[in-house]
Amino acid sequence: MLTKQHCGPFTHKYRMFFSAATEELDSYFPIKPECQADVPKTRFKARVGKTLSPRRWHAAFSEDGHLDIAGVLRRIQRGGIHPTIKGVVWEFLLGCFDPNSTFEERNEVRQKRREQYVKWKDECQKLTSVVGSGKIITSPIISDDGQPIQDPSNSCSTPYDNGALSSVVTLDQRVIQWKLSLHQIGLDVVRTDRALVFYENEANQAKLWDVLAVYVWMDNDIGYVQGMNDICSPMVILLEHEADAFWCFERAMRRLRENFRSNASSMGVQTQLGTLAQIIKAIDPKLHQHLEELDGGEYLFAIRMLMVLFRREFSFVDGLYLWEVMWAMEYNPNIYSLYEESSDPNSSRTNKNDEAKVNRKMLKQYGKFERKNVQTGWKDQRGALAVFLAASVLETKNKRLLKEAQGLDDVVQILGEITGNLDAKKALHEALKIHKKYLKAKKP
């Protein structure tokens, strides 16, 4: 078995192994007793021989630390990842580490990233001492023109240290925008996964707030947008070290950040909504025409699905399962090097080298969704698996939408009924079928 140093941060519970073929996984992410009746039922079960187990994960490394990523991807696509190792496996799926690196090389990368995170966090602490204090901000601390606001009702129990603001000097726009976002982050943090026992601990809420605050400081081009909290929360829960959670979230945002970009006239997610419309038009023209007649041709009713990757449609455990299988299916072995080549978060999710010459052995290191894209030469950056998953949801409601939807409110209501009633495994299977059908329809 690999050591703690090799596999990343482990607590006692993260050393446990399968206790049964279909063990109850909700116990790893306990729900508050008063919330039990209000959360969707978990469908996912860890299954011996299918789910990536700690034993199988440890065995996938060579003696010096090279990872058999092809074998890992196959197992994840068959049955997800056991909760005890989700965090450390996600780091590879999201491109934090190169599977071809050694244990020593990854430890060096991890240490450098932790130091970089501390540097960014120190910059934030100089602007407000609430960062890193174990508290969060839920009320504005400055006005729109950058003047300090004292609010004794704020969740922070100590007076704000507004740094340069106390001297009433002119702040640059980056600092003002960041400070204006802090209470918005706080308001969302206190609502994030609030059914989980994990967030009864104020220190855990503060950890999530700190990670989001530092990220927004680092990626000031996008700023903070509601929904980022839903993406970040699982990383904070799964990865014990705050800096590791930050970098896992940062990599996830490489894929998603353009969805969060918005201005006065448009939202970034509209690009993917446009792709969704193209897909439905190609595979189900009758449904597309019906939605257009209902003035739903822009597919705005699917915004939530794509913005937060179906977090609201599934139980917490099922949502994690959905994400990791999607990421395994989308996996591109070039992802680490592509991200490392540019420190700019704008670097694309799936920028590709010349993949026309990818050999059969290399193809095994791609997820099945991305492999199909490489084989067919389809390089539409907007066509993430999540878009095809949204298409699969629409297709499951095809008959009802055609028969019952007389307006957009009906469409929203019908789609809203999927919450807690979707089977993630079946939905992903249908998404792949739609992907194959769409690529076939797009051939000249």
Automatic annotation (TrEMBL):
Q: Name one GO molecular function term.
A: GTPase activator activity
Q: Which InterPro entries has this protein been placed in? A: Rab-GAP-TBC_dom, Rab-GAP_TBC_sf
Q: Which SMART domains match?
A: TBC
* Any Pfam family the entry gives: RabGAP-TBC
The residues covered by the Rab-GAP TBC domain are: 80-330
What superkingdom heads the lineage? Eukaryota
The name this protein goes by in its record: Rab-GAP TBC domain-containing protein
Organism lineage string: Eukaryota, Viridiplantae, Streptophyta, Embryophyta, Tracheophyta
